[in-house]
Amino acid sequence: MEQGIGPVAFDGRCSTEDNQDPETSLGWQLGNARKFVEPLGATVAAQYFDIGQSRSVPWERGTQAAALLAQLKRADWGWSAVVVGEGTRCCFGNQFSLTEPK
């Protein structure tokens, strides 16, 4: 029996500039992510959620996104993939393509 992709890390972001409620924003983004990965046998094992950061800010300058990138450089991630709850909330332009660890 296939076990699926296993644990994943969730990344999300909420900008307070346009009156988003961080708790509500986290809830719907995490819900979107789970709807996508749970049918594949995944569980969200880690959460990285920046509050008050513009999506135009590079991931390295976001507190939680930077922590996610730092974790990617380690050998013991604890998860097998990264899922975002809403791509346009997390990335601007080609940012996501620049997140690959060097």
Write the layout of secondary structure elements.
Blueprint: E1 6-14, H1 22-37, E2 42-51, H2 63-72, E3 82-84, H3 87-90
Parallel strand pairs: 1-2, 1-3
Structure explained in plain terms:
The chain has 102 residues and is α/β, with parallel strands linked by helices. Helices cover 29% and strands 22% of the residues. It has a domain at 30-98. It has helices spanning 22-37, 63-72, 87-90; strands spanning 6-14, 42-51, 82-84. The protein starts with 5 loop residues before the first strand and ends in a 12-residue tail after the last helix. The longest helix has 16 residues, at 22-37. Strand 1 (6-14), helix 1 (22-37) and strand 2 form a beta-alpha-beta unit. The protein is built from three helices and three strands. Strands 2-1-3 form a three-stranded parallel β-sheet.
Quick take:
By secondary structure, the protein is of the alpha/beta class. Helices cover 29% and strands 22% of the residues.
Spatial sequence of strands, sheet with the most strands: 2-1-3
Number of helices: 3
Distance between the termini: 35 Å
Task: Compute the average pLDDT.
Answer: 81
SS-based structural class?
Answer: alpha/beta
Largest sheet: 3 strands, parallel
Shape: flat
Task: Determine Rg (CA atoms, Å).
Answer: 14 Å
Helix content: 25-40%
**How many distinct beta strands?**
3
Order of helices and strands: EHEHEH
Unreliable sequence segments? none
Could you tell me the strand content as a percent range?
15-25%
